[in-house]
Amino acid sequence: MKAQGRETRTIWLEPDGRTVGIIDQTRLPHEFATLRLTDVAAAAQAIKSMQVRGAPLIGATAAYGMALAMNRDASDAVLADAATTLLATRPTAINLHWAVEAMRRHLAALPPGRRSDAAYERAAAICDDDVAINRAIGEHGIAPIYATWRKKGERGKVEILTHCNAGWLATVDWGTALAPVYRAQQMGIPLHVWVDETRPRNQGASLTAWELREQGVPHTVIADNAGGHLMRQGKVDLCLVGTDRTTANGDVANKIGTYLKALAACDNNMPFYVAAPSPSIDWSLGSGDAIPIEERDPREVTEIAGRLADGTVARVQVTPDGSQAANPAFDVTPARLVTGIVTERGIAPASRDGLAALFPEFRAAVRA
Ligand code: MRU
Predict the structure, then answer these.
(1) 243 touches ligand 1 (CB under 6 Å)
(2) Structure confidence at residue 222 (pLDDT)
C-alpha cells in the first residue's frame, strides 16, 4: 500500500541483509518515521511498545526477531531464549505464538551454522505469505460489499464500519479487514468507511484514518460510542473488523469495543464480518473464554496524546488525580454474533464445522 505516495510494506530487510526496517507506528499520524531493528531485544521492545502492532505484523516482527537473534549467536540456548523473550511481549495475538513456533521448529532442526541464513529466509517467507493471504482475503471479502452495492442500486455507496486498525499497518501489506475495502476501491465500487476512534490508544483515529487517507478512501472518524446510533439511523451497511485470535468454534478476540459493535449490529440486523487469516485462528482452543486478554498500562486510559497548536505532540491527563483506571485491551465476540469469517480460503460460517470445512487439515487439532 502507499505511504506518502510510495508503495511500502510495514516491515522489510534493510540493504545490509541483516537489520530490519519498520514504520514506527507510535509516531503516526503526525509523523511518518522508520526505525531499524538490530537485535532480538529491539524487536521485542518494538512489539511491546506497539511501534509495530496488529496481529499479523506482530507475528512477522517476531519472525525477524528470531532471525536477528540467530545472526548474533545461533546456539540452542539463544534460540530458546529468543523465543521466550518474544513470546513474553503481548499475550492475545496468536500470530505471535504461531510465528515464533514456526521459526523455532524450523531452526531447531538445522545445525547452528545454517540457522542464520535459514532464519532470514523463513522470516521473509512468513512476510510474503502474509501478503498473499491478505490479498486473498480481499478477493473473498469483496462478495458482501459487492452484494450490498448491487442491492443499494448502482448509484448507492457502501457504508462500512470498522474498529481499531486491521488495515495494512496491522499486517505486512493489504490488511485483513481493510483488504476487501481496498479491493472494492480498485474495482470502482463507491464506498465510505466509518472509523471508530478506538480508545484508549486510538488506533482507528490515528492509524486507520491515516492509511485510508493515504489510499484516498473516503472515511469519517467517529467516537466509539457513535456506532450504535449510526446503525439505528441506517447509515451503516455492514461491519468489518479484524481479529487477534479466533478460536476453533468461531469466537473472536479483537480490540476492546468490538463486542459492543457486534451487539449493536445484531440488534440492527446488520452483517458483522470478521477477517481472519489462518495464522490468527487458534485451533487448540474450543472457546473464546480461554483466550488470554492483555491488560495494559492504565495510563493509556487516564491520558491521551495529540498534537498541539504549535505542532508538538504531547500527552495530557483526562481523569481526576487519584481515580483508578482499568485497561483490558481486547474483548471476545461470541460466534453467534458473527455473520461470517473471511479467510484466505473463503467466507466461513462462524462455527466449528464452518471453519473446519475450509481448513480440514486442522479438524483433528480441534478440541471440543
Ligand atoms: O492492540 P493492537 O493495535 O495490536 O490491536 C490490533 C487489533 O485489534 C486488530 O484488529 C487485530 O490485530 C487484527 S489486525 C489485522
Answers:
(1) yes
(2) 98
**Residue 129 and residue 137: Cα distance in Å, rounded?**
12
Which DSSP symbol is given to 168? Answer: G
- The CATH class, in words, for 139-365 is alpha beta
Q: What is the pLDDT of residue 78?
A: 98
CATH for 2-129? 1.20.120.420
* 317 Cα to the center of ligand 1, angstroms: 25
pLDDT of residue 367: 57
Q: Which cell numbers hold the place of 345? A: 480460503
pLDDT tens track for 334-355: 999 999 999 999 999 999 999 9
User: Which stretches in the chain have pLDDT values below 70?
Assistant: 367-368
Upstream peptide bond of 144 is cis (omega within 30 degrees of 0): no
- Taking CA atoms only, the protein residue closest to ligand 1 atom 15 is 166
Give domain limits for the chain: 2-129, 139-365
321 CB-near residues (< 8 Å, 6+ apart): none
Atom of ligand 1 nearest to the CA of 277: 15
Q: What is the pLDDT of residue 264?
A: 98
Ligand 1: distance of its center to the CA of 171 in Å?
A: 9
Q: Count of residues for the chain?
A: 368
